[in-house]
Amino acid sequence: MARMVVVGGGIGGLAAAVAVARRGHRAVVLERAEEFAEIGAGIQLAPNGLHALDRLGLGDAVRALAVHIDELRFMDGVTGEHVASMPLTGGYRRRFGNPYVVVHRGELYRLLLDACRRSPAIELRAGSRATGYRQDGSAATVLLDGGGRVTGDAVIGADGIHSAIRRRLVGDGAPRVAGITVYRTVIPMERVPEELRRNAVTWWAGPGCHFVHYAIGGGRYLNLAPSVENGATEAFAAVPVEQARVLGELAALGGTAQRLLALGEHWKSWALVDRDPVDRWTDGRVTLLGDAAHPMLHYAAQGACQALEDAVVLAGLLDDGADTIPDRFEKYNAERRERTARITHAARASTRLWHPAGAEAKARNEMLSALSGPALHDHVAWMHGAREFGADGARR
């Protein structure tokens, strides 16, 4: 039995703790905040994410509270034209073995946190800010702000895009600012006119911008998330912003999209950031997971799914005991880097589909509208259809 020190108490860190505990190991989770809590709104989980949750023993609980989405809808936000829909019932669920669902981020987090609290093999420590690590041939130690230390057989850095563990391990500086700002808010569904409600994740595409919305909280709320290429050059997060600014930056969108945006209140803004993929995020008895290893733009809706996949792959490789951890971490890194890099690049490239104008937008519409449901499923099969989550899944 190995003792794993998990740095970061977010979705990825808690999933890692649950995964290693289910394999017979112990875990201590270090969270920098004074309590374990999750902020944010909606989160999309494709079938691959639910397959990972099944292996954590939480798939049924998530499916029970989630909104099971019927379709992904692509709309021309300027003309209001319905361009294409990817059906997510019937053939999609049979092919990929799970539905496509959305949940409130806090709901998923609470399920993971409760699973950690139920496990006698998991210790949760809040108010523990990591600053780096040290290791020798038999152990790894997390260094804490204030001089504390926590030692185990290995360290899993799941401390997000600004990871202190990554700073020591990879040393690639600050994240890349994408030049895009996303605005987010959540509104009660009763404020949404009946004719605008639909069990779908809907994209409204426009020149240099797009707008996504879908139901969360069991259908009680509508999550609104428009994005704008506005040349943001500095990272910021959860900054309040006036409704007039949101509507002004999304003025290119008309009709229904504007009606929905006008319902939003209490908007907050984020500058989108990610990192270039790296081949190596493991150093002996220390490895990275989730956004600490491979942060990606949210446009592929795979960030949480990839953290969950990381957790089950990593834990599945740790059955041979503490002496083999460095080799097992190398194997985990090799298994995951190709798939996560491909998704990182796909998320970046998606704006070329959503943000064209004029003739390019018309050509895009013609291309998408010509695709059948099964053809659209083919395009996402390598991502949504993965069940083992390793290198083979990246190539399918």
Task: Provide keyphrases for this structure.
396 residues, alpha+beta, FAD/NAD(P)-binding domain, eight-stranded mixed sheet, six-stranded mixed sheet, 14 helices, 20 strands, 36% helix
Topology:
Blueprint: E1 3-7, H1 11-22, E2 26-30, E3 42-45, H2 47-55, H3 59-65, E4 67-68, E5 71-76, E6 82-87, H4 90-96, E7 101-104, H5 105-118, E8 122-125, E9 130-135, E10 140-144, E11 149-152, E12 154-157, H6 164-169, E13 176-188, E14 200-206, E15 209-216, E16 221-229, E17 239-240, H7 243-249, H8 255-262, E18 268-274, E19 282-283, E20 286-288, H9 303-316, H10 325-349, H11 351-354, H12 358-369, H13 373-384, H14 391-395
Parallel strand pairs: 1-2, 1-12, 2-8, 5-14, 12-20
Antiparallel strand pairs: 3-7, 4-7, 5-6, 9-10, 10-11, 13-16, 13-18, 14-15, 15-16, 17-18, 19-20
Write structural notes for this entry.
With 396 residues, this protein is of the alpha+beta class. The chain has one domain (3-174, 275-395): FAD/NAD(P)-binding domain (3-Layer(bba) Sandwich), CATH 3.50.50. The chain has helices at 11-22, 47-55, 59-65, 90-96, 105-118, 164-169, 243-249, 255-262, 303-316, 325-349, 351-354, 358-369, 373-384, 391-395, and strands at residues 3-7, 26-30, 42-45, 67-68, 71-76, 82-87, 101-104, 122-125, 130-135, 140-144, 149-152, 154-157, 176-188, 200-206, 209-216, 221-229, 239-240, 268-274, 282-283, 286-288. The strands form four sheets. An eight-stranded mixed beta sheet has the order 6-5-14-15-16-13-18-17, with helices on both faces. A hairpin with a 4-residue loop joins strand 15 (209-216) and strand 16 (221-229). The protein starts with a strand and ends with a helix.
